[in-house]
Write a structure and sequence with these properties.
Elements (H helix, E strand, L loop, with lengths): L6 E6 L4 H12 L6 E6 L15 E5 L6 H14 L4 E5 L3 E2 L5 H9 L4 E9 L15 H9 L3 H11 L10 E2 L7 E5 H7 L11 H12 L1 E12 L9 H18 L5 H12 L3
Parallel strand pairs: 1-2, 1-4, 2-3, 6-9
Antiparallel strand pairs: 4-8, 5-9, 6-8, 7-9
């Protein structure tokens, strides 16, 4: 593992301690020059007592302004510290092999890259289909309904780029925010997360803004495990937040008439011909 200087942030809310420590260990393993910001939106700061690594900066943030707004606190501190590269990490991510060094190396070799994500695996080792084309409102509804089955299958294979060779590196319009590498020089130019999204769609919004001016690269040569919960499908409160974020996203970017979306998706698909 190479010892590279970088920053990372995890946003917490009543986070499981054992799961969090596993995530922290994955990020900091062997990376002496790393700096990890933990932005804790929990009502209390009980987790602070469990952390004794000098590379960890704990920030208690009980106002809980949301996922993106909380990461923005860390991103701003990372920029002020002089960091060039910053990882956004969910507290349910872990990995054993080195993921940090290969991603940093690949990004450093191409100045046009502003954002990257690795292959994301379920806990059973199967792949989560997270890189996507830009959505339209029907994309969101269809992913919930999943009917009629044959038409849905054709749609989802294209929308989630499922037919792309498994280990192909490509420029994806949408990257998931569960584990993302950001070039902070690009963030200075296009802006960080939009605080209008409390949770959900803030990563899609950032991906789109980044994709307008930089490559947003899916890098499946390395992988991490993600304990995907799909909370919006199980919890009424989270589903309401999901719907509100969808409305925010399409009000910002356009609903059914979005010529830029069509152009970006067409260009993305042209990589695979």
């Amino acid at each position: 593992m190479g010892n590279y200087s970088f920053t990372a942030s995890i946003v917490l809310y009543k986070t499981d301690e054992v799961e969090l420590l596993k995530t922290i260990e994955s990020i900091l393993q062997g990376n002496i020059s790393a700096k990890l910001y933990l932005v804790d939106n929990s009502p209390n700061d009980v987790l602070k007592k469990k952390l004794n690594d000098f590379r960890i900066i704990y920030i208690h943030n009980p106002s809980n302004p949301g996922f993106g707004a909380s990461h923005n606190i860390a991103i701003q501190k990372a920029i002020e510290s002089g960091s060039d590269y910053h990882f956004i990490v969910n507290p349910d991510i872990y990995f054993e092999k080195d993921v940090i060094f290969p991603m940093l190396e690949y990004m450093r070799k191409d100045a046009a890259i502003g954002m990257m994500m690795p292959k994301i695996l379920n806990l059973d080792g199967t792949t989560q289909n997270l890189p996507k084309l830009l959505p339209n409102p029907l994309s969101i509804i269809w992913r919930k309904v999943k009917k009629p089955a044959k038409a849905y299958q054709r749609f989802i294979e294209q929308y989630e780029l499922r037919k792309v060779p498994e280990d192909m590196i490509y420029n994806a319009p949408i990257l998931s925010g569960c584990f993302t590498l950001l070039k902070l020089q690009a963030i200075k130019k296009i802006g960080a997360y939009d605080d209008n999204f409390f949770m959900y769609f803030e990563d899609w919004d950032l991906s789109r803004r980044m994709h307008q001016q930089y490559k947003t690269i899916y890098f499946p040569l390395v992988s991490v495990y993600h304990g995907y919960e799909s909370g919006a499908n199980k919890n009424r409160k989270l589903f309401k937040i999901f719907v509100n974020s969808a409305l925010t996203y399409f009000n910002k970017w356009g609903w059914f008439f979005d010529m830029e979306r069509n152009k970006i998706n067409k260009n993305a698909l042209s990589q695979f011909k």
